[in-house]
Amino acid sequence: MDYKYIEQLLESYFACTTTLQEEQILRSFFSQEDVPGHLAQYADLFNYEASAKEDTLGEDFDERMMALIDSAEQKVEVVEPKTEQAKPRIINLATRHFAPFFKAAAVVAMALTIGRAAEHAIGEQEAEENNNVIAVDPYIKSSDVRQAIRVKDVSQAETKAINDSIISLNAKDEIQ
Amino acid sequence: MLKYRLLTPSNPQKKNMDFKHDILPLKNIIFRTALRIALNREEAEDIVQDTLMKLWERRNELEKVENLEAFALTMARNLAIDRKEKMDNQHVSFDDEEHDRPDEGMGNADNTLMRTETRSFIANTINTLPEKQRTILQLRDIEGKTYKEIAEVLSISESDVKVTLFRARNELKEKILQKKSLFL
After folding, report:
1. What CATH number should be reported for the domain whose range is B18-183?
2. Which of the residues A112, B74, B144, B164 has the least number of beta carbons within 10 Å of its own beta carbon?
3. Against a cut of 0.90, is the pTM above it?
4. What is the DSSP string of B118-135?
């Protein structure tokens, strides 16, 4: 048998001019049982090259790897409940942001109540004035004073209630 | 990991990466290449784990990667070299172990004693080559990769791959001829 072709391929192999296919031919050639003496020295090299690719990781590696991937995924899942825990805090923050508006609303309500109370008082005063057309002067005077006190009482009581609600709002904020 | 995912703009056209289907099959080529650099099976296995894990963490970027295998091998090689440098700094005796270890890694028990002996001679000879040479030899002669692919993995030119492979193959040839002359 003529080994010129193989000898040529070998020369090319060591000159790094062989193609992948030619290198595969060399490995196939040296995998046979009887390689001629003068080429036998290279048999181990090409047989090693061919067999080294069979070195693989076992099934147990896959199991360990999948467990690693799963635990990494679980870590991501652990982060998610944390963000859910933060959700009530977000609502709290919202309450905190709206607190000044609640205060403003309370002030507006207070002003309106006082205004209405004053209006009401004036209306009553006018009515009383109308009623007291026939009444004696000293009575009018005393009822005027009483009415003024009443107006003052009402507005004071309402203001106190509003102030209380503001205090409780502030207290709530502090707790949060 | 989560942060990274949020920063990466999601492409609606992208194909979702599946770990078992797209990444896990790379394990063996990564393992053999890492083993060629680390010269230690446990170390090589750790490198495979780290590489696959990193790939999975960066799965949203991988759709832009043209050659996932080359990308993975580059990653594994960098990891292996980093770890080896750290090991070399830690253990002064690592060089002594280096020559003992390839046997446990590269030997094949099912061959005859004679074959195992000569085969481990080849393995040992390859493993005493400089890292760049033995990695290129691994990728070309064992994994059957093209010069282009190898150049991509090592981030060097194709001619640089050829020159390095030339040195590796001829060093092997020399050692084979030396051994033969010793026995004659």
Report:
1. 1.20.140.160
2. A112
3. no
4. HHHHHHHHHHTS-HHHHH
The pLDDT tens digits for B105-149 are 444 444 445 555 666 899 999 999 999 999 999 999 999 999 999
> Are the Cβ atoms of A57 and B162 closer than 8 angstroms?
no
Give B-chain residues touching A53 at CB under 8 angstroms: 32, 142-144
In A125-154, which positions are buried (b, 16+ CB within 10 angstroms) versus exposed (e)?
beebeeeeeeeeeeeeeebeeeeeebbeeb
pLDDT, tens digit (0-9, with 9 covering 90-100), for B66-90: 999 999 999 999 999 999 888 888 8
Q: pLDDT digit string (tens) for A27-68?
A: 999 999 889 988 999 999 999 999 999 999 988 999 999 999
Identify the pLDDT of residue B135.
Answer: 98
Average pLDDT over residues B35-40: 95
Which of B24, B28, B57 shows the shortest C-beta gap to A56? B28
Alpha-carbon distances, residue B103 vs A141, B33, B125, B168 (angstroms):
120, 16, 11, 20
Closest CA to B108 of A43, A29, A47, A51: A51
Which residues from chain A sit within 8 angstroms of residue B180, using beta carbons?
41
> CA geometry: angle at A11 spanning A5 and A16, to 5°?
120
Q: How far, CA to CA in Å, does A157 sit from each of A109, A161, A165?
A: 14, 6, 13
Quote the strand ranges of A54-97, DSSP E: none
Contact A45 B170 (CB under 8 A): no
Cross-chain Cβ contact A49/B162 below 8 Å: no
